[in-house]
Write a structure and sequence with these properties.
The chain is an alpha/beta fold. It has helices at about 35-45, 70-80, 100-115, 130-135, 165-180, 200-215, 225-230, 235-250, 270-280, 295, 300-310, 325-330, 340-345, 355-370; strands at about 25-30, 50, 60-65, 85-90, 125-130, 180-185, 190, 220, 230, 235, 255-260, 265, 285. The protein has 14 helices and 13 strands. Helix 2 (about 70-80) runs parallel beside helix 3 (about 100-115).
Length: about 375
C-alpha cells in the first residue's frame, strides 16, 4: 500500500508565537519528547529560552539550567536570579505507587513554583498532564465509572488518588498566591522526537518492526480488539508545543484547562498496514487477547545489538529507544479513548495535525538520525 503523497503537509502551518516584551521562558524537562519540541518552537519564535534538565538540551539557542527537580535546595540554588516570565512544566517522575507519584510529582510542582513565584517575574505557568485525568492512574486505569467520550475538560475528577490532580492543585494555589495566570494541557499519547524518553510510541514501534523483520516474524498489532477496531486520537509534540505557547500568549486562554490532540481520529486497523508498509514489514492484526510487546520482545536485546552493529545505529541501549510497557498500556486498552477540543477551538486555537502523516514523518526522522535502521 503506498504512503500518502509526499507533496502534502502533515500539519496546518504552525504560526510563530511572538514573545511579549521582556519574555523569558523556562522549559522544565527540556530534553523530553514534549519539552524538546516546545524549546524548538520557542527559539524559532524568538523567545529567550532556558531549559531545566539533567543533560544539556539538543536545541541550539537554549540556555541550560542543570538542577535536580526533586530537590528544593537544588532548585533554590540553581534557579536563583533566573526570573523567567513563563514556565512550562513538561516533566514528571514515575514512581512505584500512585501515592508516591502524588507525593513526588505534586511536590516538584509545589517546590518549583515556590522558588520561582517570589522572584516576582512570573506571568504564566503551563502544566502538561494527560488523559489519565479522565481514565485514572496506572493503579486504577480504566476502572470504575469513567466519563463518556469524547472527554470534556469539565468532567468531575475520579474518586481516586491521581498525581495529575495533585499537580493541578499545586499550580492553582501558587497562581493565586503569586498572581500569575495558568493553563493545563491534557494531552493524549504524545508522539515526537526524543531518545531516552520513557513513553515514546514511534521509536517503540520502529524498534519492534526492526526486530520482527530480523527474526522473520510478522508485525502483529500488540493491543486489544477494542483499540484495533475503535477510533483513537493522538497528540503530536509540535501540536502540544504550539498549544502551550498559544495559551501562554492568549488572554482568552488564561486560567483554563484544555484537552490537546491532533484534531483527527484514526483506526489502528486502517493505520497499521500503512505503518507496516512504511517500516517494510508484514502487518498482522491482533489476537483474541493482546500479544503484548513486553512478551514478544523478551530477549530482543541481542537482536538489537546486531542491528546496531549492522546499520551503525547511535543508541545501543534498546531500553532508551523502546518503551514496551507504555505502548502496551496505550494499545491494550479495552475502551475507546477520544478527547474533545471544542474549548480550544472556540477560544481561537487552530492547530491541526494529520496523525498518519506525522507518524510516518517521525519514522523517517528517527531513521535519518540512525536511531532506527532503514527498512
Amino acid at each position: 500500500m503506498p504512503d500518502p503523497s509526499p507533496f502534502l503537509p502533515d500539519r496546518a502551518p504552525t504560526p510563530l508565537r511572538t514573545p511579549p516584551p521582556g519574555a523569558h521562558a523556562l522549559v522544565v524537562g527540556a530534553t523530553g519528547i514534549t519539552g524538546s519540541a516546545l524549546a524548538e518552537q520557542l527559539v524559532a519564535s524568538g523567545w529567550r529560552t532556558s531549559g531545566l534538565s539533567r543533560r544539556p538540551p539538543a536545541v541550539e539557542g537554549v540556555e541550560h539550567v542543570r538542577a535536580d527537580l526533586l530537590s528544593r535546595e537544588s532548585l533554590e540554588e540553581n534557579l536563583a536570579g533566573l526570573a523567567p516570565t513563563h514556565v512550562f512544566v513538561t516533566a514528571w517522575s514515575r514512581r512505584d505507587s500512585e501515592a508516591e507519584n502524588v507525593r513526588v510529582n505534586g511536590g516538584l510542582v509545589r517546590d518549583l513554583l515556590a522558588v520561582l513565584g517570589p522572584q516576582g517575574s512570573l506571568r504564566h505557568a503551563a502544566l502538561v498532564t494527560g488523559l489519565k485525568h479522565y481514565l485514572g492512574p496506572f493503579e486504577a486505569y480504566g476502572k470504575g465509572d469513567l466519563p463518556d467520550t469524547p472527554f470534556l475538560e469539565d468532567a468531575e475528577r475520579l474518586p481516586v488518588e491521581n498525581f495529575y490532580y495533585a499537580q493541578e492543585d499545586e499550580l492553582f494555589a501558587a497562581a493565586a498566591r503569586h498572581g500569575f495566570t495558568w493553563s493545563v494541557h491534557r494531552a493524549h499519547t504524545v508522539t515526537g522526537y526524543a531518545v531516552g524518553n520513557a513513553m515514546n510510541l514511534v521509536p517503540t514501534l520502529g524498534a519492534y518492526a526492526a526486530v520482527v523483520a530480523a527474526t522473520g516474524r510478522p508485525f502483529t498489532f500488540p493491543g486489544s480488539q477494542a483499540q484495533w477496531n475503535g477510533v483513537v486520537d493522538l497528540t503530536d509534540a509540535g501540536q502540544l508545543a504550539d498549544h502551550q505557547l498559544w495559551a501562554a500568549t492568549t488572554p482568552a486562554a488564561a486560567d483554563t484547562a484544555f484537552n490537546v490532540v491532533n484534531g483527527d481520529v484514526v483506526r489502528w486497523r486502517r493505520l497499521w498496514p500503512r505503518l507496516a508498509a512504511h517500516l517494510g514489514v508484514e502487518p498482522a492484526g491482533p489476537g483474541a487477547e493482546p500479544l503484548t510487546l513486553e512478551a514478544q520482545m523478551a530477549g530482543a536485546e541481542a537482536v538489537w545489538a546486531r542491528l546496531v552493529e549492522e546499520h551503525h545505529l547511535v543508541e545501543p541501549d534498546l531500553s532508551r529507544v523502546a518503551s514496551w510497557w507504555h505502548s502496551d498500556s496505550d494499545l491494550g486498552r479495552p475502551l475507546e479513548v477520544v478527547a474533545d477540543m471544542t474549548r480550544s477551538r472556540l477560544a481561537g486555537f487552530g492547530g491541526y495535525v494529520s496523525t498518519e502523516r506525522a507518524l510516518l514523518a517521525l519514522v523517517d526522522r528517527y531513521r535519518a538520525a540512525r536511531v532506527l535502521p532503514p527498512a
